[in-house]
Structure formats: C-alpha cells, structure tokens
Write a structure and sequence with these properties.
By secondary structure, the protein is mostly helical. It contains 17 helices and no strands. Belongs to the CNOT9 family.
Length: 311
Amino acid sequence: MPLDGIKVFQWINELAHPETREAALLELSKKRETVTDLAPMLWHSFGTIAALLQEIINIYPSINPATLTAHQSNRVCNALALLQCVASHPDTRTVFLQAQIPLFLYPFLQTTSKTRPFEYLRLTSLGVIGALVKTDEQEVITFLLTTEIIPLCLRIMEFGSELSKTVATFILQKILLDESGLSHICQTYERFSHVAIILGKMVIQLAKEPSARLLKHVVRCYLRLSDNPRAREALRQCLPDQLRDATFSVCLQDDKSTKHWLQLLIKNLELAAVQPTDPRQMGMSPLTSQLHRLDLLAFCFPFPLRDFDQN
C-alpha cells in the first residue's frame, strides 16, 4: 500500500482517541478531495462517525451564549468537512440520511452571531447540506422536507453574509427544482409568502450591493416558482420592480444565463398584462408595497394558514 494510504488509515484510527483527534481531523480534511474512497473508509471504520458527532456536540454549549472561539470553530469545521465528504459519496449518502446526521448541524444554522467563527461554522454546515442537494436525488429532497431546513435557509438568506446567503439560496433553489419541493412551498399561502418576502428583501438589498453570483440563484428561484400556477398568479403582483426594469443590467451584462432566466421569468408572468398599480400603494417603500400586494393575494392559495414547517 502506498505511504499516503497507510497514513490515511492511521489518521482514521487516531480519530478514536481524543488526544490525537484534532491533528487527525486536520490532516484528513486536507485529503478529503484527493482520497477517492475516504467516505466509505470513514463510515465503515469503527467509532469514526461517533467521534465526528462528538466533535459537533461538544460545541453546542459554546453556541448559546455565543462564546465560540476561532480554534473551536476551525476544529469542528474540519469534522464537518469530513461529514460533507460522506454526504457527497454515492455509497454513503443514503445511510448518512437514514442516520439523520444533518439534524446535528441545524443548531449551527440557527446561530445569529456575525463573528468570523460563527460565520465559518454556518458556512461549513451549509456546505454539507449543499453537497446533499447537489446530487439532485429524490431521497435527499424527501428527507429535507421533513426537517426545518427551508426556514433555516430563509433566515440565513435574510441576515447572513453574502457567501452564506449564496449557499442558502442555492439549497432553496435545489429544493424548488424538485417537483415535491415546489409543491411543498406552494401548498399554502403562508409558505409561499415567507419565501417571496425573503426573496424580495434580497432583491432590494442586491440593488444596493450587487452580487451577480447571488442574484443568479435568486432569479432562478423566482423562475422556478413561476412554474406553479398559484405562485405565478401571485408573482404577477409581488415581483420586485427591480427585476422588471434595468436595475441589474450592468450586474448581468456578462451573465447570459441569468439574463435569459430573467427574461423567461418576465415572459412567464406576462408583466405587460398586469393591472395598473394599486393607488393605495403610492408612496410606500418597495418592501411595504410588496407586503401589501402579497396580503391582497391570499385568494391565490385557498388553503388554511398554517405554520411554515407544518405538513
């Protein structure tokens, strides 16, 4: 066996021992993209996944109150990087979901501190979920829809850093691209309005601080929502004005795919046929106007209002 292979097995064995675990986490996290079968090795080796989960659980007391240090964050993020490796591999993804390991990461996604250790922790946790949805497998979406991942992503989309917002929006986009995900979000007015309000806030913020990378995912979410008849009817009224005019023309001048998606969105909504602006909205801020229009459109979703995360 090559020397590198021997070292990988040695580091995996060292994960079982608290005194050698930190160094082994660091070395294995560096090798996660170069060792082809690292995920099965991690999953099937005795006590390894338990050791990684212990690293995660050990950080919980540092979340509330928010006392997480950079050293703690780096260490647990190395453990999360190995879990992302397991989540990405086709031979371990299903058992990873069956063990409900993503749920151990949700407390990290609920944090609100904007310090670098917490931001790094949220971003790495999002990376694990992003690795799951990137596979476009039905079992992933089915699992996520039974959890609170959508409201967690929406919170990060509203308050996170640009990079965290981008990954969270990508996850929402992947959920929407699945038929069951689109149906779930558009099942009730409350679910749809929650998503639409956050997307609208993001558009308004992007108009002030443009990011082509983030805007791409926002537009793609809107376009997918327009595939649902009730959501399409609502979006005709509540789509932010910044997506109708030339606000993002400079930002998207080199992004042909996003420009195409935006044009397709506008075509789907047939914005030219929309009724004149409600005079009661005159003088309102863009966000207030959007909320008002959403409030008028509850009839598009003839279902009882329920909490976002209920079935």
